[in-house]
Amino acid sequence: MAKHIAIIGAGVSGLAAIKECLDNDLIPICFEQNSFIGGIWRYENVSEKNKEPYSSIYKSILTNTSKEMTTFSDFPIPADWPTYLNISLVEKYIDMYAEKFNLLPHIKFNTTVLNVSILPDKRWKVKYIIQHENEEKEEIFDFVMVCSGHHRKPRWPEYKGMDLFKGEQIHSHKYKRAVGFENKRVLVVGCGNSALDIAVDLTHAASQVYLSIRRGKLPWIIPRFVNGKARDHRTSRFSAYMIPPSIRGKMTENSIIKYFPFPSHLKPTDPLIATLPTINFEIFQCFAAGTVIVKPNIKELKSENKQIEFVDGTFLEDIDTIIYSTGYYIDYPFLEEQIFTGGDEIEQEFGKDFRDLVCLYKMLFPPKYPNIAFLGLVLGAGAIWPISEMQARYVTSHIKGFIKLPSQSKMEKSIRSYYESIHRNCCKAARSAIRLNYISYMDTLSKDIGCYPYSYEIIKKFGFKFWKLIMFGMVTPIQEGTLGMVQEKLLHFITKINLNQLLKERSINS
Ligand SMILES: Cc1cc2nc3c(=O)[nH]c(=O)nc-3n(C[C@H](O)[C@H](O)[C@H](O)COP(=O)(O)OP(=O)(O)OC[C@H]3O[C@@H](n4cnc5c(N)ncnc54)[C@H](O)[C@@H]3O)c2cc1C
Ligand SMILES: NC(=O)c1ccc[n+]([C@@H]2O[C@H](COP(=O)([O-])OP(=O)(O)OC[C@H]3O[C@@H](n4cnc5c(N)ncnc54)[C@H](OP(=O)(O)O)[C@@H]3O)[C@@H](O)[C@H]2O)c1
Question: Of 89, 97, 100, 398, which one has the fewest beta carbons inside 10 Å?
């Protein structure tokens, strides 16, 4: 009998999950609390009617991953669209994807999942509420795919005097546009992607923008294009595996420094590969023009004169707004926390050294509960959408019994050794338990489910020239007509590839 799968959320991860379930003759029911698909990629203004928008996206956003790397594999983002997409194009692409694969009929909109709990027979009870009906309901499922995102619960810092400060204080989650900030003095806190995007955006309206960075040094800031290529087209399968990461990292550092001189006292000191770099281009112009001025960590917010004291003893006065761009907490309020954190033991052992501490095998399955999976819960990995898609294929392969997960203890061992490798290789600020490397992660999953592009098979089937593209070109997920037939250990993802388009795209970018 076909298995029933609950999918929580209809963002890009949830949509990929629905499609893979349908391809594998599973019965998906997707619960979506909003009245729309796309999750954070559906721009919403803050207004009287909508005081708590779901989306953390601001109007000026551009993807920081190129369209060739961000696309779903079997539905390429149109070749004539720009390399980096604005919000309107992202929304359009997501709508096109849902329409093409007829995903909407499988979504219950305006339906919030309240609780997910395991039954003695290992199935899951999902309790939910349809907003206009105001009545709680429940259904039983064989498997749950959690696709509810992790960029929604703001992480607020704590500073002395926050409650006394007379200016406005918001989190970047609520920042939407520079309108309303005309002639204001604004302090942005943080130096991740949100912080730098927002600081740059504000320079078009505010009289002065300041940026407070708690570590006193900037992170590595990588522009969207490096040496004339989209930054994520630069890594090929060959360079990923044959050039040691430290050398690759150094090469990128040198390319960045050549074009963007970091102010010497703010230059990052950790090697790029051990950190989580930020993607931005315009911020260097703002530093040079003085429209964004860097300050160290905040010491205290004062009650008088909208004054702020910093740890180096300097002060700013008349700060109208502080925008805390300090990231988000992982939050699954409908689940018992130990299901995804692994419980106290893991917390005690790794909690003080890690952020985003979760305990998931292959960033998907809690070892104790292999019939629930978390999709899209990854970081620093390049484009998330093809990862969510590959994860959905992996999970459906597991549900169908095409692959077998190891024992609980083996899964726990594998997670621990992953923590240890992150601990060894990353500086403290970048130690996140959901951090992964795009190529090696995708390769591990694709090998297990049987869609890894083995060299000898490619050469046999398509010849040496195509193999060269696979090895030395960008590692795009683009392919057309993915079958999802995971038993076929051969090249099912290559067999229907639209070679012409791939060759064209790769030659344009090589
Ligand atoms: C500002 C910003 C910019 C980003 N830029 C990029 C980029 O350029 N490239 C990239 O690859 N990634 C980027 N990301 C990462 C981004 O998170 C992913 O691209 C992707 O949107 C994740 O999709 P998701 O479906 O996993 O989560 P979401 O988009 O958050 O979707 C989750 C869905 O679950 C629903 N939901 C949540 N809880 C419940 C519940 N209890 N009941 C029912 N429904 C629920 C929500 O309503 C939502 O629709 C960015 C993130 C942020 C915050
Ligand atoms: N254009 C885009 O595509 C785009 C735009 C925005 C966001 N994103 C993505 O969305 C996700 C979230 O990004 P984000 O920038 O919102 O969050 P983030 O990546 O978690 O960055 C948070 C920043 O706040 C700082 N910070 C955290 N706690 C702090 C504290 N208590 N005091 C002072 N500073 C503190 C961090 O500094 P430390 O480094 O010192 O910890 C970091 O610089 C990321 O995956 C990002 O790639 C993408």
Answer: 100
